[in-house]
Each structure stands twice: as C-alpha cells, then as structure tokens.
Amino acid sequence: MLKVADIETFYGPSQALFGVNLEVNAGEMVALMGRNGMGKTTTIRSIFGLTPASRGTIEFESHNLRRLPAYRIAKAGLGLVPEGRRCFPNLSVRENLLVTARPGEWSLAKWKRCFRAWRSDGHKWPKPSLAVSSRCWPLAGR
Q1: Are 139 and 100 in contact (CB under 8 A)?
Q2: Rounded distance, CA 140 to CA 95, Å?
Q3: DSSP-based helix, strand, coil % in the chain, nearest 5
Q4: Considering only Cβ atoms within 10 Å of each terminal Cβ, which end of the chain, N or C, has fewer?
Q5: Where are the domains of the chain?
Q6: pTM of the full predicted structure?
C-alpha cells in the first residue's frame, strides 16, 4: 500500500534523512519511533510532500508520489492529522482523517454537529486561521 524506499531529504545544504525505508501494507498499523532529532517528523513530511524528498521513491498503491505537491498526494488518498492544536480533540483519529482528507463528503449539517459537540466539551470556536481549509490544512485537497 505505502512503500518508502531510500529517501533522502535536505533542509538547505543539511541532509536530514539518509536512505529511509518504510513499508505499510493494507490493514497494518505502524509506529515511527525514535529520539528527538532522529527524523520522524521529516520522514512524515517527506511522505506527504511538505518537505519533499530529493532522492528515493515514495509509492502509494503503486503510484509514485515523490515529486507530487501535497494537494495531489491528498487526492491520491493519503491524509495527515497533525499533532497539537490543528485537530479536533473530541473527534476520533478516523473522524479527524475524514474531515481533513475528504471535506467535500461532509454535509453542512454534519459539520455543525461536529462543531456543536466540540463546543459542548468547553472549547471555543476555532479562529478562522484554524478552520479546516486547503490553506490551513495543506492535505485537505480541493
């Protein structure tokens, strides 16, 4: 399903990833673990096109994603729920993925129910900069 082979990623002249390999098959859950500064975030950012890999291959369902922009990777079916403030705390991981990866499938009534539930947990309405949109959620697609 997802295969990452020998990717190398740079921040300017500094190399951050050196030949990273990863494979996730259908139905599997994989944890990417390591100490601070080991490249976990850079690996994820490279897969999703946010910090593009300069070498190697990133394939999802046999399609090469390495040179695609983030919105095209989202259209291919990959979604990212970032940690911290940018996810809805009362939604499950699956619901956060659905909201960010496929916003067109959600009706206005469903959005309102989600926000009402979120507010009922004592949260304030998100600022417009935190709203789900292709500007703030680069992988939301169009």
Answers
A1: yes
A2: 13
A3: 30, 20, 50
A4: C
A5: 2-75, 84-130
A6: 0.61
At 65, the amino acid letter reads L
Task: Return the CATH class of domain 2-75.
Answer: alpha beta
- pLDDT tens digit string along 19-56? 999 999 988 888 888 899 999 999 999 999 999 999 99
**CB neighbourhood size of 5 (10 A):** 14
Quick: pLDDT tens for 71-123: 888 888 887 766 666 677 777 777 776 666 544 555 666 666 666 665 665 55
Q: Cα separation of 30 and 4, whole Å?
A: 13
Burial class (CB in 10 A: 0-12, 13-18, 19+), 17: buried
Assign 3-class secondary structure to 73-142: HHHCCCCCCCCHHHCCCCCCHHHHHHHHHCHHHCCHHHHHHHHHHHHHCCCCCCCHHHCCCCCCCCCCCC
